[in-house]
Amino acid sequence: MSETRNPARAQILDGIRRSLRRGDLTDTARLAVEQRLAAPPRGPAVARAQLPPAEKVALFCQWAEANNATVARVAAADVPDEVSAYLARNNLPAEAAMAPSPQLERYDWANQKMLSLRRGRGEARDQVSITGAFAGIAETGTLVMTSGPDHPVSLNLLPDTHIVVLREGDIMSGYEDVWAMLRARYGKNGMPRTVNTITGPSRTGDIEQAIELGAHGPRRMHIVVVRD
């Protein structure tokens, strides 16, 4: 939306320019900005994540577990079995709120007769959520979540247990690879409203420097890595 169509926005931006002692952009400065937006430069890459695909997946799993997540690597046909088994191992109810994602609907959930799934956004009463992920980052064991009708953000935050189904092919080396993937997937004018980067379950060390899980979100994260 242009500033001429949104006077309030223009007023705010003018105030910022004045505080920074910047007037209207010159043609040269404007061209530089437009060129940077059209071809964003890549930031630095961490050498440890520049690996062949199999080693990249292993590094992601290593870092995810180091950050208090649990990881299972399974074939696509075994995803529902692993989810049900994880819930049973942790004495959790066999029910979950699941993202209404075509990616997740590919798996044979109906084969798990005792597993009750509700498709939709997360609610306060939900104990478990199941979502996909846009990408994983091998460099840090981080998950990248994009919001949309097929992935309500509340599923990342409200339930006490978050189960994430991640395909091996969506594990990238580093953050810069994910930014490029986002631009390619969504385009300049179609970016998701929210992009969450999540590294393990929620935690804080604010009180006496003691780590407490589940401070601001799920206290458990289980990542089901699906073999290509």
List keywords for this structure.
12 strands; globular; alpha/beta; 228 residues; Rossmann fold; 4-stranded mixed sheet; 6-stranded parallel sheet
Number of helical regions: 7
Q: List SSEs in N-to-C order.
A: HHHEHEHEEEEHEEHEEEE
Per CATH, the superfamily of the largest domain is NagB/RpiA/CoA transferase-like
Secondary-structure content class: alpha/beta
General form: globular
CATH class membership of the largest domain: Alpha Beta
Low-confidence stretches: none
Number of domains: 2
N-to-C span? 41 Å
The description of the largest β-sheet is:
6 strands, parallel
The averaged pLDDT comes out at 88
Task: Give the % helix.
Answer: 25-40%
Strand content: 15-25%
What is the name of the CATH architecture of the largest domain?
3-Layer(aba) Sandwich
Number of strands: 12
Instruction: Kindly report the CATH topology of the largest domain.
Output: Rossmann fold
